[in-house]
Amino acid sequence: MADISKDQVKHVANLARLAITDEEAEKFTNQLSSIIKYAEQLNELDTDGVEPTTHVLDLKNVLRKDEPKEWITQEDALKNAPDKKGDYFRVPSILE
């Protein structure tokens, strides 16, 4: 891949609505070129026979199955409530 040009950096900055100076554009040009050269080293790796992965770790779904089960009744839930009104918990008002 070709090196990043100063005009490309300015173009991307403009698309991102970033105001950059010529000095910053020069600095970013050098930094981005270094990053691309470093990433191009991956092209040198022999990946024949390597299966593609979606994650580097072999993760399994650790969530429980979504199965219905018995819950307490509304009456049992309200049994120990310090204050209730009908079928609901009563709490102090926080609005004025």
UniProtKB/TrEMBL annotation:
<dbReference type="GO" id="GO:0070681">
    <property type="term" value="P:glutaminyl-tRNAGln biosynthesis via transamidation"/>
</dbReference>
<dbReference type="GO" id="GO:0006450">
    <property type="term" value="P:regulation of translational fidelity"/>
</dbReference>
<comment type="function">
    <text>Allows the formation of correctly charged Asn-tRNA(Asn) or Gln-tRNA(Gln) through the transamidation of misacylated Asp-tRNA(Asn) or Glu-tRNA(Gln) in organisms which lack either or both of asparaginyl-tRNA or glutaminyl-tRNA synthetases. The reaction takes place in the presence of glutamine and ATP through an activated phospho-Asp-tRNA(Asn) or phospho-Glu-tRNA(Gln).</text>
</comment>
<keyword id="KW-0547">Nucleotide-binding</keyword>
<dbReference type="GO" id="GO:0006412">
    <property type="term" value="P:translation"/>
</dbReference>
<dbReference type="Pfam" id="PF02686">
    <property type="entry name" value="GatC"/>
</dbReference>
<keyword id="KW-0436">Ligase</keyword>
<dbReference type="InterPro" id="IPR003837">
    <property type="entry name" value="GatC"/>
</dbReference>
<dbReference type="InterPro" id="IPR036113">
    <property type="entry name" value="Asp/Glu-ADT_sf_sub_c"/>
</dbReference>
<protein>
    <recommendedName>
        <fullName>Aspartyl/glutamyl-tRNA(Asn/Gln) amidotransferase subunit C</fullName>
        <ecNumber>6.3.5.-</ecNumber>
    </recommendedName>
</protein>
<dbReference type="GO" id="GO:0050567">
    <property type="term" value="F:glutaminyl-tRNA synthase (glutamine-hydrolyzing) activity"/>
</dbReference>
<keyword id="KW-0067">ATP-binding</keyword>
<comment type="subunit">
    <text>Heterotrimer of A, B and C subunits.</text>
</comment>
<comment type="similarity">
    <text>Belongs to the GatC family.</text>
</comment>
<keyword id="KW-0648">Protein biosynthesis</keyword>
<dbReference type="GO" id="GO:0005524">
    <property type="term" value="F:ATP binding"/>
</dbReference>
